[in-house]
Amino acid sequence: MALSELAAGSAVFAAFGGFVLVSSITPGPNNTMVLASGVNFGFVRTIPHLLGISSGFALMIALIGLGLGSLFTALPWTWPLLRVAATVYLVYLAYKLATAGGVQDRQVARPMSFLQAAAFQWVNPKAWVMAVGACSAYVLHPNLWLNVLLLAGLSAIINLPSVAVWAVFGASLRRWLARPRVLRVFNVTMAVLLLGSLWPILAAGH
């Protein structure tokens, strides 16, 4: 393989890595909920949530890369259904977060599980934008299956520490938000931010 081809391949990998890093570490529904989970439950109890996000996102990229995106294009009526499902579920999560109890209720409440976090990616508007963008703009290998494997695998590797940063930050705030009233204000603020992430869905409907 020529040096020019190696350089071109390395540039594509670097560009894709930068795309996933920036997309994963910037604010969005996942990071908002992970931050809140770190505050309310601590980092260790948030680990299944983190693993579910990365695994679910990688699976989404794999399926879209293998043709799922074409199915949605062929059946345009599925997009409004997806928007409705995403809106309803995000509103529900925002409500649960806003009405979460104080410190005394942390042992009763449960953080999001691995499967719940993985399934959430399918109604997460930011995850859809990232996955479709990744599969549309980047070709890491000419073979379809290897390309999908590389896209999904690298996405999971980069995404996990990116979202974990938010959980660590949230866990570091636990002692500062120990008072029930302060924690309630924090949770309501996170709920409002989560509702704000509905804008891409609502904008797409116009």
TrEMBL record:
Pfam families in the record: LysE
PANTHER family the UniProt entry points to: ARGININE EXPORTER PROTEIN ARGO (PTHR30086), ARGININE EXPORTER PROTEIN ARGO-RELATED (PTHR30086:SF20)
Primary site of residence: membrane
Membrane topology: Multi-pass membrane protein
Subcellular location: Cell membrane
Organism lineage: Bacteria, Pseudomonadati, Pseudomonadota, Betaproteobacteria, Burkholderiales
Cellular-component GO terms for this entry: plasma membrane
The name this protein goes by in its record: LysE family translocator
GO molecular function, one term: amino acid transmembrane transporter activity
